[in-house]
C-alpha cells in the first residue's frame, strides 16, 4: 500500500551520527520522523512520532498521491535569567513524505494527534477492495471472489 520514498535514509542517519546533529536553535533541512504503518480492516494507518510538538505546528497535505507531514518543534521558553545547560533535543522543521498507491482513497484521509503521536488513517479505495464476480453459463450460476473462492448461487 505504501511505497518507500527515501532510499538515502540510512545514509542520512549515518552522516548525522558521524558529523553530529545540528545545534539547538539552528535550522537545517527537514529531518525524518519515525513511523509505524499497518493495515487495519479497510483502512491503512500510519502513526508518526512527534514528541514535544504542539498540535498547531503540524501540517498534513496530500497532492497527487503524496502524503506530506510537516511539524515544527519550537525552542522552550526558558524565561528570564535561565541558561541552557544541555540541549540535545532537535529543534526546527521535521518532514516526511509517503507515496500512496492508487489502492488508497486519498480524498478521505483523517488525522488525529494525541500524546505526541500523529495518526493518519487512509481508507482503502473501493476499487481495491475484494469483490464478488458472478459467472454465468455452464450449469448453475456461480460466484468467484477476488481471492478465488467459488460458490454456487442458489436460485
From TrEMBL:
<comment type="similarity">
    <text>Belongs to the small heat shock protein (HSP20) family.</text>
</comment>
<dbReference type="InterPro" id="IPR031107">
    <property type="entry name" value="Small_HSP"/>
</dbReference>
<feature type="domain" description="SHSP">
    <location>
        <begin position="26"/>
        <end position="138"/>
    </location>
</feature>
<dbReference type="Pfam" id="PF00011">
    <property type="entry name" value="HSP20"/>
</dbReference>
<protein>
    <submittedName>
        <fullName>Hsp20/alpha crystallin family protein</fullName>
    </submittedName>
</protein>
<dbReference type="InterPro" id="IPR002068">
    <property type="entry name" value="A-crystallin/Hsp20_dom"/>
</dbReference>
<dbReference type="InterPro" id="IPR008978">
    <property type="entry name" value="HSP20-like_chaperone"/>
</dbReference>
Amino acid at each position: 500500500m505504501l511505497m518507500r520514498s527515501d532510499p538515502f535514509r540510512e545514509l542520512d542517519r549515518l552522516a548525522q551520527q558521524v558529523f553530529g546533529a545540528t545545534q539547538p536553535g539552528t535550522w537545517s533541512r527537514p529531518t525524518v520522523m519515525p513511523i509505524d504503518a499497518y493495515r487495519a480492516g479497510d483502512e491503512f494507518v500510519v502513526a508518526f512520532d512527534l514528541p514535544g510538538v504542539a498540535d498547531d505546528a503540524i501540517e498534513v497535505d496530500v497532492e497527487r498521491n503524496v502524503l506530506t507531514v510537516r511539524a515544527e518543534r519550537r525552542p522552550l521558553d526558558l524565561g528570564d535569567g535561565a541558561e541552557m545547560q544541555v540541549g540535545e533535543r532537535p529543534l526546527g522543521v521535521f518532514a516526511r513524505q509517503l507515496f500512496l498507491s492508487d489502492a488508497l482513497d486519498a480524498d478521505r484521509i483523517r488525522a488525529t494527534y494525541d500524546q505526541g503521536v500523529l495518526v493518519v488513517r487512509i481508507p482503502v479505495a473501493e476499487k481495491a477492495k475484494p469483490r464478488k464476480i458472478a459467472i454465468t453459463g455452464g450449469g448453475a450460476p456461480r460466484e468467484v471472489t477476488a481471492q478465488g473462492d467459488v460458490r454456487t448461487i442458489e436460485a
